[in-house]
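> example.struct
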């Protein structure tokens, strides 16, 4: 949903928000509702019949009154839900960027692939001293202090541990 929104396609973003089940958040009735809504998208009268009074129904009512105003309909999404979508997409982008950096700068033997839903993500198993120094350098240090708290010393960052224990 957030990817479509970032790319400027508010209509697609809203369709995803109304029809894509959130596996860990949607209750069973919400999942059933989204499955029922999907085939009726684009048929506002049909959607109004299908949906009981709910947050999704209020979005459909808004679109019925303002058929082309998908951006405002997105703005009417519950703030916690909209924030969840955006945070998840931001995390996805960060994970992909960090994965690319790790693969470009570390030896493959230093990496371990961790299975994730969108695909495996490489994480470091071991860092050499020069790599630790590079990651804890002045520019990285500022980012680490911001990410982990202003008073957190560099040695407490996740990059300060030279090796993760091997299983087995």
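> example.seq
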């Amino acid at each position: 949903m957030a990817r479509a929104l970032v790319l400027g396609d508010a209509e697609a973003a809203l369709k995803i928000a109304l029809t894509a089940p959130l596996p860990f958040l949607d209750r069973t009735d919400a999942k059933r509702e989204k499955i029922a809504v999907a085939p009726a998208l684009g048929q506002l009268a049909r959607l109004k019949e299908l949906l009981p009074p709910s947050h999704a129904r209020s979005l459909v009512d808004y679109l019925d009154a303002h058929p082309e105003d998908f951006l405002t309909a997105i703005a009417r999404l519950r703030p916690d839900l909209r924030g969840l979508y955006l945070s998840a997409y931001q995390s996805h982008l960060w994970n992909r960027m960090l994965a690319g950096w790790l693969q470009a700068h570390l030896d493959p033997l230093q990496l371990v692939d961790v299975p994730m839903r969108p695909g495996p993500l490489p994480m470091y198993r071991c860092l050499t001293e020069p790599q630790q120094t590079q990651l804890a350098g002045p520019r990285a240090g500022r980012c680490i202090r911001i990410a982990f708290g202003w008073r957190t010393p560099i040695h407490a960052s996740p990059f300060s541990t030279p090796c993760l224990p091997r299983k087995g």
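> remarks
The radius of gyration is 22 Å.
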